[in-house]
Amino acid sequence: MPEQPPSQPSAALIQRPVLVILSGPSGVGKDAVLARMKESGLSLHYVITMTTRPRRPLEKNNVDYCFVSQDEFLRLQKNKELLESANVYGNWYGVPRKDVMDALQAGKDTIIKVDVQGVEHIKRVMPWAVAIFLSPPSREDLEMRLQRRSTEPVNDLSLRLKSAESEFDKLPYFDYVVVNYQNEIDRAVSEIIAIINTEKFRPLSEEKLNNS
Fold this sequence. Notes:
Helix 1 packs across helix 7. The relative contact order is 0.22. This protein has a five-stranded parallel beta sheet, with helices on both faces. The protein has a four-stranded mixed beta sheet with strand order 4-3-6-5. It has a domain of 133 residues: P-loop containing nucleotide triphosphate hydrolases (Rossmann fold, 3-Layer(aba) Sandwich). The chain is globular. It is of the alpha/beta class. Strand 5 and strand 6 form a beta hairpin. It is built from eight helices and nine strands.
């Protein structure tokens, strides 16, 4: 059953808390963009994604991700305590439902990061959420970023590039596309902030209200 949106505005100039879904292909820079948004001091609630994948060097638990065992993840999944969950490259990722709903009920603009396959599910249960696709300027640019990151074996790199091509087929589920150019992360952040500020005052369409 679709989740109800936060309290609805009675006029166009009344603000409402916005739920933003940030997604895009692996390696496009989602974590870097979110880190820069936090540095900007923007008043946003950042939902920490839960995952079963091994922690990478320099990653911090409950900061970059909430790292849990597969048994714990599957327990939460079974109890419907995850807003969405997906198995990506052999590891589970999920969004804690309570964290999202508590923040919205408190009137906080909220942003979650999910893989592209998770956006379709969230938009079904929360059609009023604002989905932003963070895109590389080109396939060659994405391949260079993945190679430079060097956190995956060569075969995983090929898989991620192949998956990225199919992920662009999911663009109809997104409301906006923001291109993350090399060395222009502030440009991407500014565009996302502008989208959030616009959506705070945009009245929900009848279709989105009816689907809620």
